[in-house]
Design goal:
With 332 residues, the protein is α+β, with helices and mostly antiparallel strands. Helices cover 32% and strands 25% of the residues. Bound molecules: flavin-adenine dinucleotide.
Length: 332
Amino acid sequence: MSLGQVLASLTSAKPICYNREKGRDRMNWQNALPEIITHPNSRLRFKEPLAKHTYFGIGGEATAYIEVSTIAELSAVARFHRQWDVPIAIIGRGSNLLVSDTGFKGISIRLISELAKLEVDRRVVSVGAGLSLPRLSKTMSRRGLSGVEFALGIPGSIGGALIMNAGAWGSSFGDIVTDVTVMDDTGELVNLTHAEANFAYRHSGLDAYFCVTGATLELKPGDADAITEKMQAFYKQKVETQPFAEENAGCMFKNPPGDSAGRLIDISGLKGYRIGGAEVSTVHGNFILNIDNATATDVLDLVAHIQQQVREKTGISLQTEVKRLGFGPKVE
Ligand SMILES: Cc1cc2nc3c(=O)[nH]c(=O)nc-3n(C[C@H](O)[C@H](O)[C@H](O)COP(=O)(O)OP(=O)(O)OC[C@H]3O[C@@H](n4cnc5c(N)ncnc54)[C@H](O)[C@@H]3O)c2cc1C
């Protein structure tokens, strides 16, 4: 073999060796994962149907699904993610999530136990990201602490509420947050001030981190009965004006400045419009319902149709609020 032939064979061999190595790694991360999920409260499952973890009830399987119960284990998962280069998606209650029909090729994580704690010290409340928002709302009203009455009808977790800066009736979750704890992808905890969280309308800067682990809230002391009454009045109004019986992911689109996406969809004549098993709610135009085994494709086709019709009729481009999982390497 000439020197030229040797060099040519070396350059063509390199990518093959590299790919073979990568392929081997991709097979092995699934064998290695059980070694780091050892806490008795944690759960690890493979080929987990994500439809059952979303309010839409739509979506294929995640390669792996973990219910992580401690900070130490979450930190181990962050390091595992870096070591094996495996895509990770943190899911809260799945109430603002559309999962692809082909699922998610990676590890989806839900936070439980130690990561869903609730501690109250007078008006200062420490919450884990896995805690449910309605549970926080109810507990605070009983304790005579005001500030989260708006949240009883928002079926998310604290982590999802922080990422989305969830809100209703003129209040947003970020308003009551003094600081947020996040984990970076080396597994270290980082404390962020309210300003560093970059809260905006249905947005925060927190998705730049590996995971949100919790927050500190400052609430206002008040009369428990009056707080409970206000919380229940908000809830009643929500149930009367929004669809609650069918599977959905809350508002599909963000409200454009000074207007309401529901109104624009309504005047575009789209209420009740259906593609496959997905339908625009006749109760509130900004909700897409899974009325008959809808696929993620049905929902996205309907989203595209609504955007096109509203743009044609009103000149306004609607932006989606609902996050997507399984359409790329991370949640979009
Ligand atoms: C019936 C219904 C009514 C609703 N009403 C409202 C309303 O009034 N106002 C409102 O704002 N929203 C509403 N929503 C939408 C939804 O409840 C909120 O956006 C909620 O905050 C999402 O929380 P989640 O835990 O379900 O997040 P998910 O849907 O699970 O996830 C949403 C995003 O947050 C990320 N995420 C979740 N937890 C973490 C974490 N710990 N660390 C990092 N990333 C994380 C996910 O990766 C994803 O990007 C409604 C939804 C439904 C189904």
